[in-house]
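Researcher: For the record, we're logging two predictions in this thread. I'll number them. Prediction 1 follows.
Model: Prediction 1, sequence and structure:
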Amino acid sequence: MKLNALVLCREPHSLRVLGPALEQMGIEADVCVSVSEALELLALKHYAALLVDFDLPSAEHVVRMARFRPMQRRPVAFVMIGAHTDIGSAFRSGANFIFYKPLILGQVFRSFRAAQGFMKPDRRRSSRHASDALIYFRCGEGLPTPALMLDLSERGLAVQAAEPLYGGRIPFRFTLPGTPHLIEGIADVIWADENGRAGILFKELTSASRKRLQTWLLKRTEESAVAGVPSRSRKASISQLMH
């Protein structure tokens, strides 16, 4: 199934950048220029991605509405902001990724690539396992920040933290549940909400950590199979608007 995106934007430059990036990723786009139209489309149709110019009046309502969709049908939210826009308000509204205006094609494309796995129709194609272990992140120079691990796969994990974990690259470490083995490396926060839930994508793992994780996941999958329990596993195109 081909990916699709809802784009709320009026700026010609932003549309000129978004068009090639979406096309290169094979994402079909419905583009609208009003908040009311975007809300209507979001209510009627499922989108893998949502791209919103946050500087449009009431644009935050579109991002907030997307957060109320069921998790498996919730679009990845990309928010475009200007120099004077409060980035905190964008994340509190439900943004997973931030684009700074004027948009740069390379920045947009890298973010699309990072979020690609979360935009697929079956977001749980990798075997995933529930867990109640603690994971610790090093954010800045402060003390390690603990979070509850909700879901774990070879590619990343979902967590519940006491405070929002905003996007960025952070060191992490955790002990594999039921083992003394430490897993550590560097990860990207690729989506987050104001309630402290976040999706973490592994970027760098030590070779020992990767081997231990793969062995643990394989064992859990085999145990689940033996037990008979499955693993948790009005529109315009951009080109039309530009002419």
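Researcher: Logged. Prediction 2.
Model: Prediction 2, sequence and structure:
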Amino acid sequence: MAGSLSLPRGVVRATSTIGVLLIVLLTRAYGKQRPFSVADDIAFAYFGDPFQDKAEPLTFSPNGRYFVVQTEQGRLDINRPESSLRVYSMVQIKSLLSHPEVSANLSPLWRFSRSTYKDGPVISQLRWLRDSSGFVFLAKAETGADRLFLADLRTRKIRPLTPENQRVTGFDIRDQNNFVYTALSPAIQEQINAETFSASVVGTDRRLASLLSPEATIHWHDRSEIWGVVAGKRIRVMDPQSHRALSIHWRGQMALALSPDNHTVLTALSVPMIPDTWPRLYPPPYSSDLHHIIPGEQNPDAFDGWFDVSRYVLIDLATNSIKALPLGPIGYEADWIGLPYTSWSSDGRFVAITNTFLDREAANAASVAARPCAVVVEISQLQASCLETVLGNKSNGEHEEGFRLVDGIMFDRDDDDRVTVKFTGAAGTRGSTVYVRSSNGAWKPDGASKNLTVDRPIRISIRQSLNDPPVLAATDPTSQTSRVIWDPNPWLKNIELGDVSVYKWKDDTGRVLLGGLFKPPHFDASKRYPLVIQTHGFSETAFIPSGVYPEGFAARELAAAGFLVLQVRGCPIRHTPEEGPCQVEAYDSAVTRLVSEGLADPGHVGIVGFSRTCYYALKAITIGKVHYEAASVTDGIDMGYLQYILSDKAYSPDMMSVIGAAPFADGLSQWLQRSPEFNMDKVTTPLLVVGVGQFGMLTEWEPYSTLWHLEKPVDLIVLKEGTHPLTNPAQRMVSQGSTVDWMRFWLLGEEDPDPAKRDQYARWSRLRQLSEQSHRQAGGQ
């Protein structure tokens, strides 16, 4: 939607009217039920943002009286993603549960949608005001820049809180007149403008992408400025030494927390000089970990600070003075899992912080744990107390015993002596632990951890399963009355979806593996089906039509076309030379098992990779025991020599750990053996390569070009731009649609009759002739 975001009282914008109409017309054309298509996958409405984790499905007001439901879907009619918000009252919900005769499709108090940009989510980072009078969120403008907005629940109006010319990268808010936010530094755009008209630029220490297309990569930079609004007056925070705008990178942006008196900001800043002692004092969980703290200078004013070592500080908004807290660096930089979360006590005496080392320099290092903690700091005394230590994650995918990912921390609204630490357990369960401050100042856990889903008198949940699309539901735990409040995808009742089940098997080492088996509608157990292996994870509880990320993957679409699809969670090993072979063994053993059960046709098997699993798919077609009749890789890592050369020093250690060495001198022999690109001569599988963006095309060039030079069947499709994963409807249509077409062509010998695809099939027919010629030559030898 263009123009103002304000909505008059009582005016409700219809969501995806044209898109729903198209679905209805398609349903009528096919009859009672029709096959699931890529267009259906795009139109499907998710609760929250399950792929990028930028939007929560449910956000409750602090007083517990209201909650906001966010959904995300694509709209092919306008070629944009759409974010929709619906506000419900708990009074409504209680009334609904008390009157079973009332219609279950409950109308919200307020709803509105945004589709203002080509990529999504358009709305993100929704937070309620502390008095529950409204909520704020970031919304993308037509330029793609995020702007902070306030939605006033009383007036049903929406207004911007930040200027139109700023790109907001983080925020914290007390009320509409007192908040703090970060905005991308204007110096980035100034340099882009200057380079556009310059005869030359310095490329040293720059990413290649920023040199090839500076304007397109502005969102890759994270250097921002801090702005505060105190009593309605806007303040730009300045560096007390340089007297320029203070620079802040993504850890600090995420950690922003405004004090109750609105005068102090808790955040994290890059350390200008990393001491020589820090690698020893603040080690990673394991000596084999990729990321270690490296001593030396850092430039806090660099455009990119994604991998900077940071530590927590307090900034006075009135004086710009900066006070370091009695802590070491953030644990994230030393490979300790956990993002930065922060909270102030209501009296301003304490701050709570996640994943930070205690200061091991200011005390006897042996007396302080050499691992980060969730901590509480008493401001006046500058004294830090460790609530619980962070546990490590091994390269083989195993966690330390008792591992849990801390993903939130907050003081009790009514009691500053109570802090709640939120976490996600190793099995994906959500929970929390409350810590209580005793009379002697020590913080101790208050009983056992508890599950977060039982905290409210009325439970609001997203109810879904592998075969049941998600709906919004309410349950009264006392009466056990449960009702569906809203179904965002009622049109799916007219679709033949087929069945999905959890599938388990063992590899040759005895390791138990897991995935989701998507079966065609009207599945016949006595028939063998062509099989497609989809990689990159699997959820046992969520209804995800694509199987996983909506880029390259199209599980239900493929099942509708007559395929058996196995969505594989994969081998847990990472960052060692065993990573690739272990994944290949997982796929090989799955295919062997499905063939032995009489379900899969061994002569018609395909594989799809995306992101990191592009490497796995390429590894499978070079060293796997299974012959794949077709393969597809999209926008990913392939552990090739060209990708290593194109990567910066932050990413190259990962490739070195997987291959075992850098591709120089003696290490090159390991690349010749282990990198798929040096083994493409072994490939007999037709490969579809999909690159995203100018730089994405370049990183995907090596597997394509290698096979092209070897005169093997390979096709390259380049999406001129896009996110990772894709959110734009037209881009998804190409990406997911190409997977379906490619697998149908090679495994079933079928072609889509759409005249617009005539050139595609003419190109692929030539590849088929090339493939047949190659097989004949191989047979003659």
